[in-house]
Specification:
mainly alpha, Growth Hormone, Chain: A, two-stranded antiparallel ribbon, 18 helices, about 80% helix, globular
Length: about 400
């Protein structure tokens, strides 16, 4: 096996570990909006719980960057995936707002280490000539767990209930722990603890290129990721009714239907992620980025005017395609900044993931607070307009 193959194997292994850590988390996005009352929760508390793990990452992303600077990548990922298993398992045996909030905060910290470890594996085992392709492969594989967890979890939720569904998904996380032990034991080139002190608000806002990319990834995660994934089940109830649909004589519940629609991300990211990475390397990130923001805006406008499952399905697929492409392009551009030293510090990846978390955290927190006051149509139209405006200005900003 040559050097390039060895690098790809390590990236694939890290991506699998990161992917299957997400199974329990993905189930909550399907289940909590539908059965929140059975946990003693209300919709506002659901929004807080789906945002809490992201809000805590503003601090834990920096901590993760510091730890990866002094500890080998392999052993940080091993510890993190073991913690993810126990956290995911706990969701089936707790109830009430405070216990859920505690576990969601712990999951947010754990995810900081898992996600940053995945990005750093790409940076460590790639170069400027293949980083887009490797990042596409990583993004494709690392998304499978979250998305398949939504599909399998939704079907199991309708069939067996939450506790059984959660237990099976937690066991899936357990099965990838040996893969983490097989990773290359490599220490990253971020060895000085003082780097952690250089990551501050200036790192987040002071670099104009990082700021432009950060705003882009924030909007992507807010409107094409968090908004759709956290509210899709409620949106389907509003359009189709609480009983779901009948297909070939079978009743398909809202949880199953939500999981099926979310699962389209599996095929889009797995099949098209590497392709988009190659196109980005060939044609340039700015041009690719502008096209994808326009397509994302169009998908949200389709959801705003949709009254049928067919249009909803097409809009969701287009949204996921735009989201997947933007994830690859934006992450590749930030990786290039780290490699070439254009950033203010080697904690640029931590700053980038903080921008992701700003968008991801705002989604559930804001939407579930406003959902009884603002229609889905108004939400989708507003989000579409913002993405279109960003697409018009991004070429001048970068």
């Amino acid at each position: 096996m040559d050097a390039n193959q060895n690098r790809m194997v390590d990236i694939v292994r890290a991506a699998i570990v990161v992917s299957f850590s997400n199974l329990g988390d993905s189930l909550l996005y399907v289940a909590l909006p539908l059965i929140y009352s059975s946990f003693g929760l209300n919709l506002v508390q659901v929004g807080i719980l789906l945002s809490a793990n992201r809000l805590v990452r503003f601090a834990s992303n920096t901590l993760a960057g510091y730890v990866y600077g002094i500890k080998p990548l392999k052993w940080v990922l091993v510890t993190s995936i073991i913690a993810a298993f126990f956290i995911n398992l706990s969701y089936g045996y707790i109830g009430g707002f405070l216990p859920f909030l505690t576990m969601r905060l712990l999951w947010g910290i754990t995810w900081s280490f898992l996600r940053l470890g995945g990005y750093l594996s790409v940076v460590s085992f790639s170069d400027e000539f293949n980083r887009g392709r490797y990042m596409g492969v990583y993004q494709s594989i690392s998304s499978i767990g979250f998305l398949s967890g939504g599909l399998v979890g939704g079907v199991l939720l309708d069939s067996w209930g939450f506790t059984s569904a959660n237990l099976l998904l937690a066991l899936g996380t357990f099965l990838v722990i040996p893969i983490a032990f097989s990773l290359t034991d490599k220490r990253l080139d971020v060895t000085q603890p003082e780097y952690v002190h250089k990551f501050n608000i200036r790192t987040l806002l002071g670099n104009s290129e990082l700021f432009s990319i950060g705003v882009g990834v924030m909007l992507t995660r807010l409107f094409l990721g968090s908004l759709i994934s956290s509210t899709l089940s409620l949106y389907l109830i509003e359009i189709l009714g609480s009983e779901g649909i009948t297909f070939l004589g079978w009743n398909v519940g809202i949880a199953s239907l939500t999981g099926i629609l979310l699962s389209f991300r599996i095929f889009i990211k797995f099949l098209l992620g590497p392709v988009i990475g190659v196109l980005s390397d060939k044609f340039g990130g700015q041009r690719t980025m502008g096209i994808l923001f326009v397509s994302g805006s169009a998908s949200l406008m389709m959801l705003a005017i949709s009254q049928s499952l067919g249009i909803i399905t097409m809009a969701v697929i287009l949204s996921f395609l735009s989201d997947a492409g933007l994830g690859v392009v934006l992450a590749s551009q930030v990786s290039d900044m780290v490699e070439t030293g254009d950033a203010d510090s080697k904690f640029t990846l931590s700053a980038f993931t903080n921008w992701i978390d700003i968008g991801s955290a705002l989604g559930p927190l804001v939407i579930f607070s406003l959902i009884s006051k603002i229609s889905f149509n108004s939400i989708f139209v507003s989000a579409s307009a913002v993405l279109l405006l960003y697409a018009l200005v991004i070429r001048k900003a970068l």
